[in-house]
Amino acid sequence: xxxxxxxxxxxxxxxxxxxxxxxxxxxxxxxxxxxxxxxxxxxxxxxxxxxxxxxxxxxxxxxxxxxxxxxxxxxxxxxxxxxxxxxxxxxxxxxxxxxxxxxxxxxxxxxxxxxxxxxxxxxxxxxxxxxxxxxxxxxxxxxxxxxxxxxxxxxxxxxxxxxxxxxxxxxxxxxxxxxxxxxxxxxxxxxxxxxxxxxxxxxxxxxxxxxxxxxxxxxxxxxxxxxxxxxxxxxxxxxxx
Length: 241
Known about the structure:
Low-confidence stretches: 5-20, 48-52, 94-101
Number of strands: 2
Helix content: 55-70%
Strand order of the largest sheet: 1-2
Mean pLDDT: 75
Order of helices and strands: HHHHHHHHHHEHHE
Structural class: mainly alpha
Shape: elongated
Number of helices: 12
Largest sheet: 2 strands, antiparallel
Distance between the termini: 34 Å
């Protein structure tokens, strides 16, 4: 039971490793000096692995767990007899996040804007080649499209990681929509793209009428439509992770 309690506390924030094993050893007293408190030992073995704020959280979490064993569930107290609120020792407390949805939403907007913006910009490499009046090689266009979509795929993976993290913090699709569409910060089309990433589906950039018109009527940068459409088909619906 003791092993499980400490492992459950640490595992969401670091992969199972020597650091977790050291904490478990400390919790059960292995390797400690005769007069060294368990909390001090845990702080010492993890000081190179976690930030000081994380260590404060771990100390308070252990204190709360031990106090609840003595006084009962929901009755945790610190060493001075003051109550330890549930919000001080849960996962959101570790991340330094306030519990208000508004604050979580602000962080969500900030952390999703960069990878989502980079996904939208990925097609530039392809666009630059079909804008090139000097290009006469259709393979250059095909390679530019392939490179642009591989970049978009990388950015989608970054976005997927962010979305997964916020899911674990309790945000659902409705929360995400409210956070990103407030004051017109994100269009419905962009939100749909974000949800495709959330559902682990990669959607490549399509060849538009504007792309075709630019190539055919203005720059004469040749497009191999068969190869381009095959690439689009290969990319479409790929799993992001």
